User: What shape does this take?
Amino acid sequence: MGVNLSGRSFLKLLDFTPDEIRYLINLSKELKGLKMAGVPHEYLKGKNVVLLFEKTSTRTRCSFEVGARDLGMGVTYLDPGSSQMGKKESIEDTARVLGRMYDGIEYRGYSQDLVESIAEAAKVPVWNGLTDAFHPTQMIADMLTIEEKFGYLKGINFTYFGDARNNMGNSLMVACAKLGLNFTACAPKELWPDERLVEVCKAIAQENDCCIRLTDDVREGSENADVVYTDIWVSMGEPESVWESRINLLRKYQVNKEVMSMANKDAIFMHCLPSFHDTNTVIGKDVAEKFGLTEMEVTDEVFESKQSVVFDEAENRMHTIKAIMYATLK
Assistant: This one.
């Protein structure tokens, strides 16, 4: 029996089987091929979607808007400043209204519980554009990118450097466990993922012939890595006051030339973006002035190297988000 995701919400990868995730990756490839060939694919003409953003974004917003329009759909963008969402009206009540007007709802914000509540209230497919706990749409793009570079996923050695208890650390661990990649979180013990989620992922990994490993040793994390991945050290919404302590914790986990030299010779570097690899941002300049650090989670040398696939990865957000919308709305 083929995979059918019609009517489903996309809130976290724990809700999906490996076959269902594989279906989304394959569908992404098909839709990417049509886009690259200039072949129209307005398969969802007449449908409409709304994008709810409590946290701003470049890639997520553009991917949903372009993807939806490629599929022939109408798109409405709402942030807290352009609606009553979260002010005079709860987000749950907003979802009940929007569920009667739109065929699908995207939410990007803080609480995983909230996006789950939106899905329950709206009665139409809801897509998690990012919460503090999970970032599932990014995962399909990341797995597609890895497969494009290596030709396969199962058996890939994947290492994530940095704050391993954030939404990216959580989501990448789940994605790797589901699809058979060997996942290593290389981080200070204070920033390891929640033990309960680790145990869940270890059980899933055992079913898929791969492993989950945590280490605070940079050499151990780097050696034999096929994919080296990192993310910014302070997530959106965290107070400015955490920068100093986070820099002190994570400085030695910066992805630099030495880290990449310890990985496999054909290893690739990945980052979900945005990245603080130089001082060409307001935050980058501020951190450089306050802490004397001109490159944070990754050096500019690695970010701009031939091993870096960050912009292929960013483009794939569009193709994979389009696949998620199509699969759940068709």
Summary: The longest strand covers residues 48-53. The chain has a mean pLDDT of 96. The radius of gyration is 19 Å.
